[in-house]
Design brief:
1 helix
């Protein structure tokens, strides 16, 4: 079983069925699992973890500013990142799909804002270094 780390918190917990896109077909990873979004408090990173009732880990996916999450058909979403692995997530409850989508969007926005803030800080530091010479 995947342990939650000391500086992580669960910001979303829903039930879903997970899939992996394999060349041209969707392959079921489970018969249903607990799907979580973890937030690492210290460095504000996020990951998606899918754990079956048998405590098997089906997905351990880091969310980044390049994460794409889109509804393919009602209650079925595609999830991908830079590494070209495509996961499918099928929700049996509309409320779960809405909650999960909202939390992923919040996570991606938070990561993007952190990157932009860091870039602004780097530009300010560069400017200060140049003007203090």
């Amino acid at each position: 079983m995947l342990d939650i780390q000391d500086d992580e918190e669960i910001i979303c917990s829903v039930n879903a069925k997970t899939y992996l896109f394999n060349e041209s077909n969707w392959v079921s990873l489970d018969n249903g699992s607990n799907l979580y979004i973890y937030k690492k408090i210290k460095n504000k990173t996020y990951r998606i973890v899918s754990i079956t009732n048998n405590n098997d880990i089906m997905i351990n996916f880091e969310i980044s500013n390049t994460t794409e999450y889109a509804e393919a058909i009602e209650n079925f979403y595609n999830l991908t990142n830079d590494n070209s692995v495509i996961y499918g997530i099928k929700f049996s409850e509309k409320k779960d799909s809405i909650e999960f989508r909202n939390k992923i969007e919040e996570s991606i926005n938070s990561i993007t804002n952190n990157i932009n803030d860091q870039e602004d800080h780097d530009v300010d530091a560069d400017w200060m270094n140049q003007n203090n010479k």
